[in-house]
Amino acid sequence: PVAEGVHHTAAAAAAAKASAANANAKKDTKASSSSVPAAPAKTVYYLANASTDGCSASLKASIASSAFGVDLVVAPAGQNLPSFFSSPALYTSTNKSVVAFGGNGVAKALSLIGSTTTSDNVDSAILDEWLELERTSMRKNASAKAKAAALAKVEQALEAGCGSYLVNGVLSVADISIVVTLGEGNYSDAVQSYINLHTTSSIFTSGTQGLKSLVPPPPFDIKHDPSTLGAVNSVFHTAVCKLVPHLASHIGTVVEKCKVLKKGDYQCKEAMPLFSKLKSSGTIPAGINSPQQIAQAIIDNIPGDNPVIEELTMNGPGFILCRIKASYLEHHVNAFMNSSSDGKDPKLPLPKIVTDSEETVVVDFSSPNIAKEMHVGHLRSTIIGESVCRILEFTGANVKRVNHVGDWGTQFGMLITFLKEAYPEFGHGGADVDIGGLTAFYKRAKERFDEDADFKKTSQLNVVKLQAGDEECRAIWQTLCDISRLEFEKVYKRLDITVEECGESFYNKLIPPVIEEFEKAGHIKKEEGGAKCVFVPGYKIPLMLQKSDGGFGYDSTDMAALHYRLHDLGATRAVYITDFSQGDHFKMCYLAAEKIGWVDKKKHRLEHIGFGTVMGEDGKRFKTRSGETVRLVDLLDEAVSRMGTSLYERIEEKKAVITKEQVPEVSAAMGYGAVKYFDLRRNPTSNYKFSYDDMLDTKGNTAIYLLYAHARLESIISKGLDDHKINVDDIVKNNSAKIVLGHPSERNLALHLQMFADMIVEVLDDLYPYRVCDFLYALSQAVSEFITKCKVIGSDEMESRLLLCRASAIVMRQCFQLLAIQHVDRI
Question: Which DSSP string do the residues of 421-478 spell out, in sequence order?
Fold first, then answer.
């Protein structure tokens, strides 16, 4: 027998091989009475107990699989192996008993089973001596004296042979075992050369990389992981793997949320693709002739006492529908409500896959131009960007909020020239200048630039002076920047936006080194006139890193910015939020970054969120009646004004619980929130018509409806305290909440609350805030159904239901926070 007490012998391996052959032969000769003929089943070799956590035995097995051409499959869950098999163990689909165990045992078994084996050329007795020497004298627990003697024997064998292999001049299990065990260390030249030869070989590389696929995923933590999708998938995944264990390593997520919850909560669609795969491979289990029978077999493999799902039904061509058990939802909603610390609201739990991420993310958003007021065109980038930042920050990412303002370029020569002309006292002891509205100032300067050749020439000279550091030009430029920032801040304050300015001028000095790097790498192509360009795959038009006159443009600045963000800020993810028309530009920048080697695809993620156009009621770009672009400040203030009018009317009609003095504050929260939500609730790539009437509607999918729903919850909670002395906030702070889900509407509401974690995982993928909006609206509808169908105040279940109201309010507030919408408790 092989060392380590492994019970595998050559005879045992041969028996396993023969057993597989006999099984295949029987299937070949057996006539099938089913409508789907069964093809010969391929013997599957399973590896159990594999690990990547420094387990040399697992690595030996994986490399041997690669070396001897035997495909290994991770052992499916639920295999009841004897407890003493704690190390990697090998068994087959035709013989469920263990064929071999331990790294050396499994590796030798694979060498005997493999179709490409060289075992016939290997002296078995010599091989076993080497394996015994590795086990007793080369591992960590061996004495220094024993290890030195063993290494001396290795060196002697290499010198006596070809210097590459220990047994009969061919790769054997001895080489695999000894090289894996020795690893990195201080060895003689001959031994080190031997180790390097093998560890850099394609066989060792393939085996090392393949080890991950042989390690079973950790069991899903149903008790603590808040992902309902993950919990449901774990149940179905186990059932599917039990049915087709040889496909276990290829089966991923097999469930999804039902689009119509009246039919079921979650569904498994795996039966149809699984039947097709089994049919094509000829491995359909006996008695299975259709996807519906696959679905029924999956259902039969799910124990009724599982802690997650119930009411499993088959629908259509093999869909499996199920409901989430109330007991599962009760456990999680109570765990959440009893997690308060420091007297604060309980913190919504997130899946480990989210909390373990340590990303540094640069979000480039808003980015208005200096000397221009923010208009409706800046609305989408600003509010989408703020929400994206909040989502990322909520999940623990290190977010860099970048406002890439347009504070550099040829237009500043025009503005400097006009300011000097219109305000000659500037800089000469006169009073501070008042350039009036930025938009009007810019238009007047542009008119002079277009109509007067001398003015244009002077403007061009002033650009050169500005870039050269001329004091007067720099002072005027700084004034324009300062005035613009004051105007920008009016918008940011209204919308509760936090952003750090890092404009185009910051990157000006960083452009030449970037061009030099591309030149040294041989990626620069000089076009006619001397412009320095970079071509990227899929685009005929290049990025122009330097113009023919030596100047820099958007391409230059954006490549310098990308380099700075990846290298200096250490970004692992960069998100640019601009209108959709700039999508190709940023894709070219990303491709150029890949070309020069700035991007590691395993580490970095570069994205562009392109948004559509805000249109007026006429379906054209949103403008004022006079055809002017709408100032963003005016647009926002109009929403607040209209909301205020509505609230005053409700006060007069005795339909509000706030006073007239509270209207300005409440109308601001609701008006600004209405504008934001009306934009955020849709896919950013789509255009939409801006309508005050629609966004301020108290019914339907609007912020106003959602804010009213939240205020209604707060009203019920207050009534419970005032009339019945039930203080749910004290109960939560004391971690003594107990929610019971007896009514279907209670269970439905808890189900929606429990979907929060999965929604966060989903939105982290594409960073589209509308996913938060969809969740929030669905939750508010579940709240409405609950309040309508379940009496709260004065009922026997009052405390439990009040706590469910508080849980709903907490989750709604978190969603409002992610969308940068200020919630209100009373309306």
Answer: HH-TTTTTT-PPP----HHHHHHHHHHHHHH-HHHHHHHHHHHHHHHHT-HHHHHHHH
SS3 annotation, 492-549: HHHHCCCCEECCHHHHHHHHHHHHHHHHHCCCCEECCCCCEEECCCCCCCCEEEECCC
Q: Which of 45-49, 71-75, 430-434, 755-759 has the highest mean pLDDT?
A: 755-759
pLDDT at position 216, please? 83
Tokens of 128: 């076993």
pLDDT on residue 35: 46
Asked if 168 and 160 touch (Cβ cutoff 8 Å), the reply is no
Instruction: Supply the pLDDT for residue 524.
Output: 97
Closest CA to 19 of 125, 132, 99, 129: 99
Residue from 205, 311, 320, 339 nearest 274 by CA:
320
Contact 211, 58 (CB under 8 A): yes
CA–CA separation, 433 and 350 (whole Å): 53
Answer whether 86's CB lies under 8 Å from 12's CB.
no
pLDDT band at 81 (very low <50, low <70, confident <90, very high): low
Provide mean pLDDT across the span 808-816. Answer: 98
Neighbour-count burial for 505-527, b at 16+ CB within 10 Å, e otherwise: bbbeebbeebbebbeeeebbeee
pLDDT computed for residue 345 by the predictor: 83
Can you give the pTM of this predicted structure? 0.86
DSSP class of residue 616?
-
Task: Tell me the C-alpha distance between 107 and 665, whole Å.
Answer: 73
- What six digits make up the tokens of 443? 């238009």
Q: Is 767 left (phi over 0), alpha (psi -120 to 50) or beta?
A: left
The closest of 620, 685, 671, 637 to 380, measured between CA atoms, is 685
Give percent of the chain with pLDDT exceeding 90: 71
Q: Please give the Cα distance from 611 to 584 (Å, whole number).
A: 13
d(CA 791, CA 551): 71
- The token pair at 337 is 């409500």
Find out whether 732 and 803 touch, Cβ atoms under 8 Å: yes
Q: What band does 5 get if pLDDT is binned at 50, 70 and 90?
A: very low
Please give the span between the terminal C-alpha atoms of the chain, in angstroms, as a whole number. 81
Helix 756-766 with 744-754: angle, nearest 10 deg? 30
Comparing 35-39, 109-113, 363-367, 404-408, which segment has the lowest mean pLDDT? 35-39
**Each residue of 82-128: pLDDT tens digit?**
666 678 999 887 766 778 899 999 999 999 988 654 555 678 889 99
